[in-house]
Amino acid sequence: MAMANTVDLVTAAQNGGYAVPAVNIVDDLSARAVVRAAEAAQSPIILQTSVKTVRSVGLTLLAAIARSAAQSVRVPVALHLDHCPDREVITQVIGAGWTSVLFDASDRSLEQARKETAEVVAEAHEAGVGVESEIENIIGVEDGVGSDEAKHSYSVGQLVEVAHETGTDMIAPQLGTAHGLYSAAPVLQFHRVESLRALTDLPVVLHGGTGLAASDFRRFVGAGISKINISTALKIAYMKAARTHLATAEATGKWEPVKMFDQISAAVTAVTLEHIDLFGSRGAATAKAVSA
Ligand code: 13P
Q1: In the annotation, is 82 catalytic?
Q2: What's this model's pTM, rounded to 2 decimal places?
Q3: In this structure, are residues 171 and 196 in contact, taking their beta carbons and an 8 Å threshold?
Q4: Domain with 25 in it: what CATH number?
Q5: Residue from 8, 82, 143, 169 carrying the catalytic annotation
């Protein structure tokens, strides 16, 4: 299929009572493996790229990989730029075919975040690209972006007011989760999702998905989350599969890169399938709501 519109997929999820998995890919291998899982489960999927991955693979090649992966399957696939405080990169990906961006203004003051988010929304909407907005910082450093300290926190009312005023399409609030692995049990704020959903129809996004329990995902989706980000779980599956393969190569003296790719790919597909089932999106791609 042609690349799908991120906001359409997330809105359909909100109406259907599930969340679309937004999985951070790092290369063509992981992109194809994630999309393969989506097709196997008939789930919509969002391929996410960090700014680090955009720089590592290159804008044109990364866009071509995502487009080609989307075209190879009959389920809707969207392409989203994860946490990006850099306006120049936002402009580049809008021009290169990303279907949405997360403008991360959590390092700015409230007034500056409000002003710049409105500018990004105007620029993105002009090109038919959706905007997820983050003005509170989600704890943890993700591919070089972010902080381990809560710098800016606002009331739910303020978040909604800024989102409505700036015209943003999706809200990424602090919900007690953090990027990366948890060293202590997180204090999850399900009530914030319910309060947001009571004040706005804008979709709410959950970051820091890796390491949450199945029951936590169920509660978040039940409260109204419709996009859930997963990055660390994919990285771990990818690297551990490579390590297992390399240990066998060392022991047997057989060095076959393509066999290693197959093993990595199978591990990434498996971890994506697990999350599709946890988020309730299996079978959702068959619904006609997910127009491309
Ligand atoms: P995890 O790395 O904890 O899965 O979080 C992913 C994320 O929120 C990307 O924005």
Answers
A1: yes
A2: 0.95
A3: yes
A4: 3.20.20.70
A5: 82
